[in-house]
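As a warm-up, study this chain.
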Amino acid sequence: MSREAARLEEAGVLRSVRRGRLRLVEANDHLAYYPELRALLLKTIGPAAVLRRSLADVTGVKSAFVFGSWAARYHGERGAAPNDIDLLVIGDPDLDALYAACREAEREIRLDVNPVVRSAADWRKRGADFLADVRKGPLVPVVGAAP
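Now compare it with the structure written out below.
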């Protein structure tokens, strides 16, 4: 790992600082192509991809979307790094399986996953409620098509 990090640092993709014997490494966000590289990594190995794999075997999930701050960052909105992942699940999933899948994803992405389950009928309603607020914000499809 350290050899690969050194190679990426030499190429300018990463930068690091030493704190005693510890070497802290981070992405070089000053690169001209950083936004494209970040977007590619988020789409291929980011939380949505991990959640897609974790939810694959959960029955009753018609669709699922990441919303909130992580979805906003995914779509390029500036701001602090999200502390968790908000996941909207549409359908009638087995809740035990859903929560187990979310815990599995948490272990991999190292962020809390907060699932919110709503029925397809609730999703189709167009009231001024929580789902209306979710619809107004950015969504990242995880399972099924974008609404």
